[in-house]
Amino acid sequence: MASLPIETKRTYCKVCMVHCGLVVDVAGDQIIKVRGDREHPLSKGYTCPKGRATGQIHHDPAAIAQPLMRKDGSLVPVSWDEALDDIAAKLRSLIDRHGSHAVGINFGSGLGLDSSGYAMEEALHAALDHGPKFTPLTIDGVAKVLVAGAVGRFPGLNPKTDYDGVNLLLYVGTNPMVSHAHNTGMFNPAQHIRAVAARGEVWTIDPVFTETAKFSTRHVAAWPGKDYAILAWLVREVIAGGPLDLPQPVDGLDELTALLSDYTREKAAAIAGVSEEELADLLAAIRRHGKVSVETGTGVSMTTGCNLTQWLAWVLMILTGSMNRPGGVWFHPGMLMPFDAFELPDMDAWTPGSKTRPEVDGVLGDWPCAVLPDEITVGNIRGLFNFGGRLLRNFPDTKKLSDALDTLEFNVMVEISANETSEAASHVLPTKGVLERTEFSRWDTLNWNANLQFSEALVPVTGERRSAWWVISQIMRRADLPVANDIPTSHDEPGADEAMLARLFSPISRCTFEELREKRFVQRDIEFPAPWLDAHVAKIGGWKLLPEKIVAQWHTIRVADEAQLGLPRPLVFTSRRQRRKLNAQLDFLGAEADALINPADAETHDIGDGDPLRVRTTSGEAEFVARIDPGMRRGVVSIAHGHLPANINRLTSTRTIDPISGMAHYSGVPIEIG
Length: 674
Prior knowledge:
alpha/beta
C-alpha cells in the first residue's frame, strides 16, 4: 500500500440524511483519511464523528464480500448464481403455494441511501402486489407523516425552520446537537442554534438536559409523552388572547376553541409535570415574538402522546401565522418531483393495517414493525426480504422476533457487515458500500434546502459485491416476476449504474441527471412564502385543525392522564441517541451503553455512578451502565439505544403500540430498576 499514490477525492457523507461534504484521501482500495470539505457549498468543512468514521465503516473487519447461504445450519460462501437461483426457486414456490402476500419486505436503512437499489426494492414490492411492507417509519417518525396528511392533507409536507429569520425556536423532544435534528438536514447545529439564541430565544422541552438544552435560552423538563399538554394550553391561550394570525384559511377553529375551553394552565402543568410559571413564560415569549417554529424529534414520536404533540405543534404554528411565512417555517418544494409542478392530491396517510392487527392503521402502505412477529407466527408471512435492516436491534421485542424469524422458509438479508441479524438469515447478499457505488442524494425533501448532490465511487468494489439494483432484479427475473425492459441484465455493463440513477429523474425534475453529474452539487432558489403551499391549503378548504382520528385520541389520552393526576408516577425510561453512535451502527466508536439517572433516583435505588443498572419491563430486561446526571428529570431514566448486549428492544413490546400509527413505545414506558 505504501507504494500506491494517495489521491484526494470529494464526496458527501452517507451516514445520515444531512450529507455533509467530505474530502477523502484514497490509496488504491484503502481509505487513508476522511475530513470535512471546506469548499462544500453548505457544510463548509463541518463533520461529526459519524461522518469522519466513513473510512472505518468501509474497512469493517466483519465485512461481507461474497454471497452466503445456509447449508446444514451454517452460513457458507457460495457463488452469486447459486444464491440467486436458490432464493428465486424458494420465492416462486412460496408464491405458487401461498400467494405473493406471503412474502414480507423490510425497507431497511442499509439500502435506504442506495437510490437505485431502493427503487428496485419498490419494483419488487409492486411485483409482489404490494404485500406486507415494513420501514423505519413506524420505528421512529410516523407521527410527522401522519399529521402532515391529517392537517395538511398531503403526507409529503415537511415544514422546516426559517433559520435565517426565526426569533423563537421551540425544540420538543429533539436534540439536534447530537442527531442533527429530525428530517431537517441540519449541519453544524451549534452555529445555527447560537445564532437564533443571540437574536431571539431558543426553548428546549425534554426530560434530559441535553446538549441542545445547554445552547438554549430555556429548558423545560416535561414528563415523557406529555409535551402535548403544554402545547394544548398554548394553543388555547393564543386563540383567546393572541397572537392569532391566519394568513391561510383554517377549518375547525370554533370547534377547536370549544375543545380546549377548559384546558387550564394548572391542568396542563400538572399533566406535563412542569411549573405554571414555565408555561406562562413560554406563552409570553410567543407573544413577544409573534411567530414560532416548533421542531420535534424521536423524543416525541416514540411516546404515547406522539400524534397529539405533533398535531398541536402544527396547530400552534398555523394559528400564529408561522406556516410558510418568514420567521416561522418553510416547506420543501422537492427537487426530483417538484410540488409546485402539479396539483397536490388531497389525501391523508392512513392505509389498511395488517391481518393480525387490523384495528391498527397502516401508514402510506407500511405495516407497523411491531406486527411482524405475529404475522410470521400465524403463517401470514412465510418468507422475508430484509434490505439492510438490523431487525434484532431495531424492531420491538427482540426475543419474540428472533423466535419468529427462525420459522421462515427463507430470510434473505442484504448486508455488507456481519451482525446478529445477518447471522440468523438464510441468505446474505453483499451489495456495494457507500464508497463503492456512484450515488446521489435521492431523499431531497429532507435536505437543508433545495439541492441534490452527486458522488462517484471512490474505491474499487470489495470482493464479489454487486449493485443492489442488479441483485434484486436478478431475483425477480429468476423467479419469473416482471422486470422493466430497460433494466440491464449485466452487473458490469458500462454505464449501467449511472443509467439506473438517471431513471429516477423526470422531465419536471429541477435538474437533469447529466447536470448533477457534471456539477456534483445543484441548488435551486425557492419562493418563500411558497405560492404552491398557500394554493394547496386554499384548495382543501383550509388547514384541518380537528382531524377526526387524532381528536378521538385526544379524548382518550386526556381522560386517562387526568385520571392519574395526584397519583404517584411510575419510574419510566426514554431512549436516546448518542454522538458516537447511529442506531445499530458504529459500535466501534466506543459509545457506552449507558443509562442516565437523576441523583435522587440513584440514591433511592442504591445505585452508584458506573454501576451496572438492570432495567426490567413486562417484556424483558437489559443491563446498562448507570451514569448519575443532575440534568435528568427525576422519575425518568434515559437509555442509549442501538447497543447489542444492552438491547433496548428487550424492553419494548409488540402489543403496546399506538393505535392510529402503529408506533411502538420507546419512551415513557414504566420500568423497574436494580
